[in-house]
Amino acid sequence: MRLPQPLRTPVPLISAPMAGPGGGRLAHAVSRAGGLGTFGVNDSRTPEWIRAEAEVAGAAGTPYGVGLAAWALEKHAEQLDAVIDLRPTLVSVSFGDYAPAIERLREAEILTATQIGSLDDLERAIDAGVDVIVARGGEGGGHGRNVMATLPLLQLVLDRTELPVYAAGGILNHRGLAAVLAAGAAGAWVGTAFLGTSETASTGAAKEALFAADSTGYGRVFDEAQEVDWPREYGGRSIANRFFEEWVGREEDLDESARTRFRAAVSGQDYSVAHLYAGEGVAALTHEVSAADVVAEFARAVQPPA
Ligand SMILES: Cc1cc2nc3c(=O)[nH]c(=O)nc-3n(C[C@H](O)[C@H](O)[C@H](O)COP(=O)(O)O)c2cc1C
């Protein structure tokens, strides 16, 4: 495995794109602290929004990455055009047919990554010419597959490719980073551990709900509630709140009265109903810290104790 030079950061850590909480401010703070920070772009974001977040992430020449959703690019090719113009250090395209986007990024000589959740996904990623593989287990927060856990997936993937592999899903601190480095990963791709930081775009109420939460669930409840076009094979891992428990497994029955209740809860920040995407490691979040604190904690995996 040969890690491309721009990814040889002091701490082998990439903060995962997290559309919603993870914008340019978080990406900037992570990169400044010694990892590589990224920001996530959801299907409704405009090129102007992408450029504004990139300006914050990349202030003073700071490296950053961007995470795009392949299924959204089918309708919003302008997102990819904007990102190519910006030339970030790394662009991840996941969830759907990402091959055409990877081809364009490679033509522009921009480093690419994709998140895989199965061994079939690995074959697709290799065929598409992706530079960096993110082996993401079902423990992870937000959208993805839920067919394999991080550790078995990581080991199987490392046996099958010479490409650099980052491990994702349930990596909470220096212990998890040390474990995946020992297995042969190039580093960790971490979302949930950054959700309680002061640099996220989340409100105080959302963070309090995250700090109080200790269990998550996987399903399509919140995609149905929001009527978004996520491909069905990618559910989401979120806090298992009252609304989630009520509808999981019978998402198809979700009706207009439930949607009205959901929308009201989102505007009123009632997180017993509104969605909060997070991984199984959410119980590790107890109070607000800075992104630099989180990166410094991860750095203990690669630095001798003081
Ligand atoms: C709130 C949240 C939003 C996410 N949004 C995105 C996204 O926009 N694009 C993406 O590729 N992955 C997204 N993910 C998935 C992450 O890239 C990553 O797979 C996951 O956070 C890793 O697991 P962990 O949360 O246990 O660290 C999101 C995850 C979370 C928690």
Tally of individual domains: 2
What structural class do you assign from the helix and strand content?
alpha/beta
Bound molecules: flavin mononucleotide
Widest beta sheet: strand line-up: 1-2-3-4-5-6-8-9
Please bin the fraction of helical residues.
Answer: 25-40%
Low-confidence runs of at least 5 consecutive residues:
none
Number of helices: 13
**Mind telling me the CATH class of the largest domain?**
Alpha Beta
Radius of gyration: 18 Å
CA-to-CA gap between the ends? 30 Å
CATH architecture of the largest domain: Alpha-Beta Barrel
Task: Give an account of the 3D structure.
This protein is of the alpha/beta class. The protein has two domains: about 10-200 and about 290-300, TIM Barrel, CATH 3.20.20.70; about 205-280, no CATH class. Helices cover about 40% and strands about 15% of the residues. It has 13 helices and eleven strands. The protein has helices spanning about 25-35, 45-55, 70-75, 75-85, 100-105, 120-130, 150-160, 175-185, 205-210, 220-225, 240-245, 255-270, 290-300, and strands spanning about 15, 35-40, 65-70, 90-95, 110-115, 130-135, 140-145, 165-170, 185-190, 215-220, 235-240. Strands 1-2-3-4-5-6-8-9 form an eight-stranded parallel barrel, surrounded by seven helices. It has a three-stranded antiparallel beta sheet with strand order 7-11-10. α8 (about 175-185) links the parallel β8 and β9. α2 (about 45-55) runs parallel beside α4 (about 75-85). The chain is globular and about 55 Å long. The protein starts with 12 loop residues before the first strand and ends in a 7-residue tail after the last helix. The mean pLDDT is about 95. Bound molecules: flavin mononucleotide.
